């Protein structure tokens, strides 16, 4: 499982750089503009320059409306600025067809410029609170649009977690659907260390984290702490080893 950490700008990206050996993807966000709030192009560029070259930069395009042209142009801005994972939160899409329209436009805009960039279609585990597409529709939306990753995060950051809205069994189904469609599956949403075990067992490819690696566990007032990133990774490694031992014991 890959660890994606979301700094809110260049200063926190430098803290991520101090913990670079413990993380896999640096995800540029602007949390005060929403769960998947988009940051400025120049911030994406500065973060790209601030972290080791072998660490991919992800950038969120925002909690987007159903406006394929607008979103495609924003996605191009993110990839031109140096991001190679382009994340789109389908906040304003109320049907799968709307999600596919937006994601197809994004895939074309991104891949015309950088064919090897990965496009992430993100839905929300708490979709029922905001009226957007059902979480389990995301793998099909992503696959039909030609995206690479299906993701779930939470839209409302009020302390509730991924598993408060979508059970581990439903997350397992999400991962299964994503894999059956040839996609990677990414899960996020106030993930805590206690959630790593179930996420590992269901075969999650990417776990996205911010609050759990911020001072005081607070994604808004706390700042990312390198030692918390290292601790989170250690717990991931422990669960991966346990799972590998279980698989060996069974076979
Ligand atoms: O993409 C991952 C998010 O930034 C997760 O943030 P969170 O752990 O504070 O919910």
TrEMBL record:
Keyword Lyase: yes
Cited InterPro entries: 4HFCP_synth, RibuloseP-bd_barrel
This protein's record includes keyword Lyase: yes
Keywords: Lyase, Schiff base
Enzyme class: lyase
GO terms for MF: lyase activity
Enzyme Commission number(s) from the entry: 4.2.3.153
Catalytic activity field: 2 D-glyceraldehyde 3-phosphate = 4-(hydroxymethyl)-2-furancarboxaldehyde phosphate + phosphate + 2 H2O
A Pfam family matched in the record: 4HFCP_synth
Role played: Catalyzes the formation of 4-(hydroxymethyl)-2-furancarboxaldehyde phosphate (4-HFC-P) from two molecules of glyceraldehyde-3-P (GA-3-P).
UniProt-recorded name of the protein: (5-formylfuran-3-yl)methyl phosphate synthase
